[in-house]
Design a protein that fits this description.
The complex is a heterodimer of chains A (372) and B (312).
Chain A (H helix, E strand, L loop, with lengths): L1 H14 L4 H9 L2 H15 L1 H18 L1 H4 L18 E2 L2 E4 L8 E11 L2 E6 L4 E5 L8 H4 E2 L2 E2 L10 H37 L1 H16 L2 H12 L3 H11 L2 H15 L2 H8 L4 H9 L4 H25 L10 H13 L5 H28 L6
Antiparallel strand pairs in A: 1-7, 2-3, 2-6, 3-4, 4-5
Chain B lengths: L1 H28 L4 H6 L5 H10 L6 H13 L13 H36 L4 H15 L2 H15 L10 E2 L2 E2 L2 H30 L2 H8 L4 H30 L2 H6 L5 H10 L3 H29 L1 H5 L1
Antiparallel strand pairs in B: 1-2
Helix pairs in contact in B: 1-4, 1-13, 5-6, 5-8, 5-10, 6-8, 7-8, 8-10, 10-13, 12-13
């Protein structure tokens, strides 16, 4: 719809504080690009959308650098320190790995060096002694450690904060990959249906309606049961179940864009369908696609957590927010610290909220009519 | 009119056939031996062979498919592996419980959601509107199982205000206290969506010329908004509500598990944990059929109310 696109651009331009000369300059550089620049300008003014954007960016950084940011390994268990509350700090001696086992963390209440060995009282209050040679490294700095747990520990004495941080990585990577699949299927189907219409459209919309008729979460679960558990099956299952919205939007965009003069011109010039679709129609539909993709990303994060909550999807000991919530629910009835459940809940809600804030802002930025 | 109803009904039948095909494909064509999945790793060869024969897994795929379709049309989805009861019998027994929960949640969501939407659109960009829309976005963002888990933790376990111990009918007596938390948790998301859609649809309508005319005529603001604008703004809302009603009937999955509500959702949840395939298959098909049928009925009612639908 170049007519509408033009209207929008003019609409943008007339509302913009930039001098008109600058706008006409960007217009000559190509409409899709200027639409993006103008949308960005509009987005920048939307405070909530910027908050959402920063949430997304910060989470992305946390996900990428999870190993550097997390204070502990998300897997390291010190069972004596299970279910500790916020700010707990312990003291452990680190014993050398023997016979193929990992290093052993011995929680101590008191300890003192006695010659070439260390006397300590263990967590049951018993006096013990261990040779310094059996401990890791050479100096006290190597084998004595005071781990502190900012948000407390879980049922296995693992650091909650570190698990949440690594959970961000799982959540975002599965969300991203699932949305990538949904995007590819949805855009392809939507473009074919909207461009070729007729039987192709009827067939694709039939498939979309069938998929849409399944209760979404049950479809994701059924697919994920069929594909198996773990990282790849999870994002594939979510992606395959989530393309319908994208397909509908792209189809609608193609329906209207196809009737425009510039698309007719590409046909008159003898361009083939592929070139028209990818070079001329698709770039003009990118705004709505971005909006739907952002919402889909948020939905994929929810789906991943849902699967992990049920116990399919990401498997233990991998830290997924969903499985952390489920495990904590079991523990809470036993009366342990409620942070185990509250924090992953907050992380999940915060992440999805951020994406939705950003998505809403994008929608308003691409569709200025809503803003008035 | 009749043509429209017939056309829509035939399309709905085809959708249901498609649903059956997809379900069949998911359960049978994907890797993994269904009998192994159904009976677990320790199953002995004999019972696995027996099950293979019962499911006609030793037959070619098209025979399996026709067998599945034939039974599905009669509502036969086999027996549950954990209880050995016919799946459809168990589902029918549980439907009323799920319906109580889903319908009451949708009732709450529709009334409050539309009300918030109207108030927001009436005075847009005020503190009320901004706060309501922020909360609505939050309501969309918080996954239903998170909300359910938090509600049960805060209001039942910590504060003890409500009973979260499950289905309201207990030995013949009804305890509606138990309905409150699952209903509220289930309503939050649709409520938020209805509020947002009502608001944007109302804003759209309020900017139309005929509303300006109504105002110019001196009709009271209340009447303008509630009569002239609302009637036209409700169309997209009704569509969304009906889709959500169908989806909620099907989607009380997490809430029923969290609050121990012995409905279809809890049935499905336990089946997923136990890899009870006939139950999963039955619930998936069943809920999809409910979804299609409810939407078909709403479509037909809608076409009576709005002639543009059946003509367009």
């Amino acid at each position: 719809m170049p007519q509408e696109t033009k209207d929008r651009v003019q609409d943008f331009a007339s509302h913009d504080e930039e001098p008109a000369g600058k706008n006409s300059h960007t217009l000559s550089g190509g409409e899709s690009q200027s639409l993006w620049q103008l949308a960005w300008r509009r987005l920048k003014k939307n405070r909530l959308a910027m908050v959402g954007m920063w949430v997304v960016i910060v989470m992305g950084v946390i996900a990428i650098f999870a190993d550097l940011i997390a204070p502990h390994s998300p897997y390291r268990q010190i069972l004596d320190y299970a279910n500790m509350t916020e700010g707990f700090s312990g003291s452990v001696l680190i014993k050398k790995s023997t016979g193929g086992y990992d290093e052993e963390y011995i929680p101590v209440k008191t300890w003192a060096i006695a010659g070439d060995s260390v006397r300590y009282t263990d967590s049951f209050g018993r006096e013990q002694i261990i040779a310094t040679a059996d401990l890791v490294g050479k100096s006290q700095d190597d084998w004595y450690w005071e781990p502190s747990y900012l948000l407390g520990t879980d049922n296995y004495g693992r650091d909650l904060l570190s698990r949440l941080i690594h959970g961000t990585r799982i959540s975002l990577s599965i969300g991203f990959l699932a949305e990538l699949i949904a995007l590819s299927i949805g855009v392809t189907f939507g473009a074919i249906a909207g461009y070729f219409r007729g039987w192709a459209d009827a067939g694709i919309m039939y498939i979309a309606n069938v998929v849409w008729s399944f209760p979404y979460i049950l479809l994701v679960i059924a697919l994920s049961l069929a594909f198996g558990v773990g990282f790849a099956p999870t994002f594939v299952a979510i992606g395959i179940a989530s393309w319908v919205d994208m397909c509908r939007i792209v189809r609608g965009q193609f329906f209207s864009l196809r009737q425009t003069e510039y698309v007719e011109a590409t046909r008159a010039l003898g361009f083939n369908s592929m070139r028209t679709i990818f070079r001329h129609i698709l770039p003009n539909a990118l705004g709505p696609i971005t909006v739907i993709a952002t919402a889909g990303f948020a939905m994929a994060i929810i789906s991943e957590a849902s699967l992990a909550y049920i116990g399919i999807g990401i498997q233990k000991p991998e830290p997924s927010w969903g499985s952390m919530i489920f495990d904590a629910r079991d523990n809470i009835s036993a009366g342990v610290n409620i942070g185990q459940m509250i924090y992953p809940c907050l992380c999940l809600a915060f992440a999805v909220f951020g994406f939705n804030l950003f998505g809403d802002g994008l929608r308003d930025a691409f569709d200025p009519k809503l803003q008035k | 009119m009749t043509t429209y109803i017939i056309r829509q009904s035939i399309y709905a039948v085809f959708i249901i056939i498609g649903v059956l095909v997809v379900t069949f494909a998911i359960i049978r064509l994907l890797p993994g031996d269904p009998t192994r999945l159904a009976m677990g790793q320790r199953a002995d060869v004999q019972s696995m062979e027996a099950l293979k024969r019962e499911w006609k897994l030793d037959q070619p795929i098209h025979v399996q498919f026709l067998d599945f379709m034939g039974k599905a049309v009669q509502g036969d989805f086999g027996r549950s592996f954990s209880t050995n009861r016919p799946v459809s019998e168990a589902i029918l027994e549980r439907i009323p419980r799920t319906a109580i929960l889903a319908v009451s949640a949708m009732f709450l969501a529709t009334i409050i959601g539309i009300l918030i939407g109207i108030l927001s659109a009436w005075k847009p960009y005020t503190i009320f509107d901004n706060a309501a829309m922020l909360f609505a976005l939050l309501g969309i963002s918080v996954p239903v199982f998170v909300l359910g888990a938090l509600f049960s933790l805060i209001f039942a376990v910590k504060l003890g205000w409500f009973d979260a111990s499950g289905y309201i009918e207990e030995m013949g007596t009804y305890r509606f206290n138990r309905l409150i938390l699952p209903m509220a948790a289930l309503a939050a998301r649709p409520l938020s969506i209805f509020a947002r859609i009502t608001r944007s649809s109302m804003l759209d309508t309020l900017s139309q010329d005929y509303i300006r005319t109504a105002r110019a005529k001196g009709i009271s603001e209340k009447k303008t908004v509630l009569v002239h604008a609302l009637r036209n703004a409700l169309n997209p809302v009704v569509t969304t509500v009906s889709a959500w009603l169908a989806a909620t009937l099907a989607g009380t999955f997490f809430i029923e598990q969290i609050f121990g509500w012995a409905g279809v959702g809890e049935f499905a949840f336990n089946a997923v944990i136990q890899y009870d395939f006939p139950v999963i298959q039955g619930v998936v098909v069943f809920t999809a059929v409910i979804f299609v049928v409810v939407n078909l009925i709403v479509d037909i009612i809608y076409s009576f109310l709005d002639p543009r639908i059946r003509l367009g």
